[in-house]
């Protein structure tokens, strides 16, 4: 029996081992662990990669979101529109920054925020639209940026799961005023622990985020605002600098793995495969299928050595911490139905064709038939 983990990050390390080991050894040799050249180099490389004037490294994706909301100087009581079908930190950051999350249902075909629901949620207090490019698939940016333009709203992108994805040839993270990245280890670009970044073309916002993340100062002994300690860790910056040049290839490898799944799983059981919106180039941080037998399929795969995940088993509005937002069960039927039936299959750049074929084969076996791709492969090997 093969064992397929949900993610395997070690091969990424092996690809960049020499550069990474050398830069970590240099840092440890200098024993300078806060700020410094390693952070500046990473920020410059990230700004270049992301086609934005400024990149500010911070402690996590959550910190990136929270500090952008604080840095935008929004009026008290401002509302920020986002999706309920996301990682909890998206919404946590809004609350922690002192603003009001206004949640929306999803388009069930793509799992992304429904542009129609976002438009309907705009009030006189709305200040920010916060699409999340969930699973590495672009959110409906055309509609949302038009909406932001019409209503005078600030578009901020949660790019935590989608670094390198594009819509209409334009990279996600370049559509709005600012983009928030997470370098959680399993993300498209992942560190050896937590870190994140904000990218923007707006100098005042970049400076404000930098100051807030560093106890409210830009100069060593002058604290302009009350800040926090949410700086990026220097060791993480060094790790990320070593890995960033591989991001595009690793994303291409994720796309290859997604293709193997799509070819192998088409027409298997009641599985609904991910739909790619027109003009989108996803990066498949996650490969999420849908079935009425989600829990049984997850158990079947686990018994055969295949780890799966759920992203996420409950939408944000149904967590006790967010009950006070006042939505309750039934508020967002599409997101609630998705949460009950989605299953994330293993995906990571170095997943091999044989491993993907094993996942496909075991999934097809669960539904009581061979997949078309498996049948074609065995026909080829019989020829
Ligand atoms: C969509 C989304 N937003 C925000 C975050 C928060 O990032 P971090 O874990 O780096 O704080 C994550 C990661 O968990 C995420 O997936």
Overall form: globular
Total count of domains: 2
H-E string: HHEHEHEHEHEEEEEHEEHHEEHHEHH
Radius of gyration, rounded? 21 Å
Q: What is the rounded distance between the termini?
A: 26 Å
CATH class type of the largest domain:
Alpha Beta
Provide the low-confidence segments as ranges.
Answer: 375-383
| Residue share in helix | 40-55%
Biggest sheet record: 7 strands, mixed
Any guess at the CATH architecture of the largest domain? 3-Layer(aba) Sandwich
Mean pLDDT: 96
Kindly report the name of the CATH homologous superfamily of the largest domain.
Type I PLP-dependent aspartate aminotransferase-like (Major domain)
- The strand count comes to 14
Q: Count up the helices.
A: 13
Question: What do you see in this structure?
Answer:
This protein is of the alpha/beta class and 383 residues long. It folds into two domains: 10-245, Aspartate Aminotransferase, domain 2; 247-378, Aspartate Aminotransferase, domain 1 (Alpha-Beta Complex). The chain is built from 13 helices and 14 strands. The protein has helices at 10-30, 37-49, 61-71, 88-96, 115-120, 141-151, 203-213, 234-243, 247-265, 294-303, 333-341, 353-366, 372-382, and strands at residues 54-58, 79-83, 100-104, 126-129, 154-158, 166-167, 170-171, 178-182, 196-200, 217-219, 222-223, 280-281, 287-290, 342-345. The strands form four sheets. It has a seven-stranded mixed sheet with strand order 1-9-8-5-4-2-3, with helices on both faces. Strands 7-6-12 form a three-stranded antiparallel sheet, with no helix packed on it. A two-stranded antiparallel sheet has the order 10-11. α1 packs across α8 (234-243) and α9 runs parallel beside α12 (353-366). The longest helix has 21 residues, at 10-30. The site of pyridoxal-5'-phosphate has 15 residues, from α3 and α4.
